[in-house]
Specification:
Length: 75
């Protein structure tokens, strides 16, 4: 039982960490295309995802210029 408990707790902790950084949006705030979770920036509201690395860099330079449309159910 003890040999199963440690890996189970470790995998649970890793899962919680992954979902804590899940994006709050489905649409890229720069190009308005579908966003991809691989390209994301952490903000005060949560992780914001983008369609590409170029959009992610544009947002990082001037975040106030690009309003983020939160998906339903996002905090």
């Amino acid at each position: 039982m003890k040999t199963i408990l440690a890996p189970l707790l470790l995998s649970l902790a890793m899962t919680a960490t992954v979902f804590a950084g899940w994006p709050i949006n489905d649409e890229c705030p720069v190009d308005h295309k579908a966003s991809r979770p691989i390209y994301r920036v952490k903000t005060d509201d949560g992780a914001v995802s983008f369609c590409c690395a170029d959009c992610m860099q544009k947002f990082a330079k001037s975040p106030g210029s690009y309003p983020v449309k939160k998906k339903e159910g996002a905090k």
